């Protein structure tokens, strides 16, 4: 994506944890897995994926990280004050996941491209996005979307 991205200051719902998002996310999807439901306290997690260098000025002193069993290697941070999502880290912190609720300007973000773990949905979603079920299929589609996102990013920087 060649569109300019105006940096945004992201935060949990009470602004105790903050960070600066400097670049367009490389992916955005809607995850219906039960862990995301528990983590967000909502029906699903509408979440963006960013590369580590694209998020700076991390102030996470009120974030408590916890690992759920699945999906592997995602460390999910909840705010110790508002108990809402702060930030999520994957691949040893090289990928950063930020729920769209934590952006001040969601309209500037790319649109979500798919639903994951749709079999775990709490209610049907009426949209035209592809819907994937289960761990194997969902994980495969995440990896594909990330590869495409990184490829687009490289191309746009040339
Ligand atoms: Zn908070």
UniProtKB/TrEMBL annotation:
<dbReference type="Pfam" id="PF04828">
    <property type="entry name" value="GFA"/>
</dbReference>
<keyword id="KW-0479">Metal-binding</keyword>
<keyword id="KW-0456">Lyase</keyword>
<keyword id="KW-0862">Zinc</keyword>
<feature type="domain" description="CENP-V/GFA">
    <location>
        <begin position="8"/>
        <end position="133"/>
    </location>
</feature>
<dbReference type="InterPro" id="IPR011057">
    <property type="entry name" value="Mss4-like_sf"/>
</dbReference>
<dbReference type="GO" id="GO:0016846">
    <property type="term" value="F:carbon-sulfur lyase activity"/>
</dbReference>
<dbReference type="GO" id="GO:0046872">
    <property type="term" value="F:metal ion binding"/>
</dbReference>
<dbReference type="InterPro" id="IPR006913">
    <property type="entry name" value="CENP-V/GFA"/>
</dbReference>
<comment type="similarity">
    <text>Belongs to the Gfa family.</text>
</comment>
<protein>
    <recommendedName>
        <fullName>CENP-V/GFA domain-containing protein</fullName>
    </recommendedName>
</protein>
């Amino acid at each position: 994506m060649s569109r300019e991205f105006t940096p945004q200051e992201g935060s949990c719902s009470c602004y105790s944890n903050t960070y600066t998002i400097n670049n367009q996310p490389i992916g955005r999807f809607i995850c219906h897995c039960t862990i995301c439901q528990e983590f967000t306290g909502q029906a699903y997690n509408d979440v963006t994926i960013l590369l580590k260098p694209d998020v700076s000025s991390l102030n996470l002193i009120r974030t408590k990280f916890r690992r759920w069993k699945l999906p592997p290697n995602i460390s999910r941070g909840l705010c110790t004050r508002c108990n809402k999502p702060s930030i999520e880290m994957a691949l040893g912190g090289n990928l950063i996941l930020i729920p769209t609720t934590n952006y001040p300007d969601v309209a500037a973000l790319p649109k979500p491209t798919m639903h994951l773990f749709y079999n775990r949905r709490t209610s049907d979603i009426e949209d035209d996005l592809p819907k994937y079920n289960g761990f194997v299929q969902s994980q495969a589609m995440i990896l594909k979307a990330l590869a495409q996102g990184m490829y687009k990013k490289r191309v746009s920087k040339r």
